[in-house]
Specification:
The chain has 2 domains: 119 residues, Rossmann fold (3-Layer(aba) Sandwich); 98 residues, Winged helix-like DNA-binding domain superfamily/Winged helix DNA-binding domain (Arc Repressor Mutant, subunit A, Orthogonal Bundle). The model has no long low-confidence stretch (mean pLDDT 90). A 5-stranded parallel beta sheet has the order 2-1-3-4-5, sandwiched between helices. A 4-stranded antiparallel beta sheet has the order 6-7-8-9, covered by helices on one side. A 3-stranded antiparallel beta sheet has the order 10-12-11. The chain has 228 residues and is an alpha/beta fold. The chain has 8 helices and 12 strands. Strand 8 and strand 9 form a beta hairpin. Helix 6 packs across helix 8. The protein starts with a strand and ends with a strand.
Amino acid sequence: MNKATILIIDDEVQIRKLLEITLESNDYHHLQAGTAKEGLAMAATHPPDIILLDLGLPDMDGQLVLKQLREWYTNPVIILSVQSSEEDIVAALDNGANDYLVKPFRTGELLARIRSALRGNDREALTPILTFGDIQLDQSAHTVKLKGESLKLTATEYTLLALLMRNEGKVLTHQYLLREVWGPGYIDQSQYLRVFVAQLRKKIEDDPNRPEYIITESGVGYRFIGKE
């Protein structure tokens, strides 16, 4: 069995059954909760490696559940919800969700997001050198190499790229990136982000107009995809 344990917090019995079959067939342990109260209790007593959280729970708003979890729970949370508006997605990501899938979703995509989230957790405890495809970033030396050659980046470009690479596979909202790279006073200055993402793409992408590393999540933010 896979060592990873996944907690499902969802009030829909059919969804829980689908997830149970999907996870078991891919060698994941799993726990199930049909209410927010039950889910929070399970997360506290048996902390899982990942939580799959529905926003439409019967006893508590899912965004509030997410906020409560983020007071102490540091492992990945992936939202599974019928709520598909840009506002709901951005709010969940800003409240600490690692990823967001709209129901109905493809099980293959969910499994890919789970694997990505688990890789992100592993990287935090491993080497300070991050390598994806042709890009190698040394977090200790603050250097970046592309195809073995040193890449010249400004301090801001390096900070932005390092933040994206450390969160490989995770959607980072515009507001989060602006706050982390430029500071709280810049969360409305989206033009800064567009300019620096464009600059980074020119330096790391084979074709900046068809990026393979830094992917735009329309209306939400950006996601760094590590090439296999």
